[in-house]
């Protein structure tokens, strides 16, 4: 570990949580086992042309059968926290109604094993795997799905609320709403701008309805929040139309969900900018949605640079500029820009008044290879995490109440529409054998975490 890394860890307070994140459909596999019902991602990935080379989550990283081994890996890495998601269709195969005991048992064993190893569980209730039966009756465009989610949240926290303190209702509802219903690149693959905003409202409502019911079930000091994705937007030039389109993109990409959560209202001009009518709402919805959360989970990977005046100029269409001269990109084609991460954290604190923040996802995909020698060199991932942590450290020094950092991801996994073609793990997975190999970035992360522990005990 370098001198610079030692300085880096000193910026993070004692008790700061260091973790890694995953999601059920991306790692579990075993989609037909022990009574799990089908999800929209089973159907979507089985539909030709939707996912890279027809990849599916049928086996994924086989985590469902490898929990003990994977927890040993986390322990080896020295993680103080682990963020994972619960597959709703394992708990409620039809989305509502009959509970599948084996599903709850699986997550209870996972939680108990984490606790036995001194790793704090951060549980996400919804990371995109909606039970297919709920989709058949409209999915997130149906208001009833929000009530079904609240019942599901109640069931899970009744079972695990005596030992899990940290909960995330939804992961990136923007993606569920827009990628799922607006442009259709994610399940359920619907292309309907208007439907995206209806779905978005019901996702927010689901969060709002679940919040008080979860808190009632959590025994220790409840920490309930949600994780939102942010992609800060920057203007590529000084022109008026560039300024306008940059603001419109920000409205759509960054403000759509945080504004109702933080302020109890949709941001002004959102629906007009996207040329949709406001979603149907009932009295009291925005109060539920805007109820205080205990923390905000921040997922950030990159920024967007916008060139205005592109026709058509609706912010969900292509107004991004091509490669920024001199910039570096990951395998996803996402620009590496730590400064925007720093500014995002400051904004969430100052403009949105978030009093506790966790980075619940940050990481990078690169072309990692393994030659059979048990070593994976990924210097660019180390540099990425280092630079983003440096930006986070500066935010902490500037007063941002940052409580923890989870890198995406613990393991290489099923990267949604990209299938297995993109590797985000700090641990490599050889999909032929399911062997796990800690990448150089994993070894580096481990050293960093242990340096932070040492610095904290001084
Ligand atoms: C996260 O989403 C997910 O939570 C996680 O499951 C996933 O594996 C990880 O990141 C890596 O991708 O409008 O098509 O240009 C990613 C957040 C937000 C990033 C939307 C891409 C623009 C998509 N994403 N963003 S698009």
UniProtKB/TrEMBL annotation:
Cross-referenced Gene3D superfamilies: Glycosidases (3.20.20.80)
Signal peptide: none
Residues annotated for substrate binding in this entry: 26, 127, 171, 301, 408, 415-416
EC numbers: 3.2.1.21
Reactions that this protein is recorded to catalyse: Hydrolysis of terminal, non-reducing beta-D-glucosyl residues with release of beta-D-glucose
A Pfam family of this chain: Glyco_hydro_1
Protein name as catalogued: Beta-glucosidase
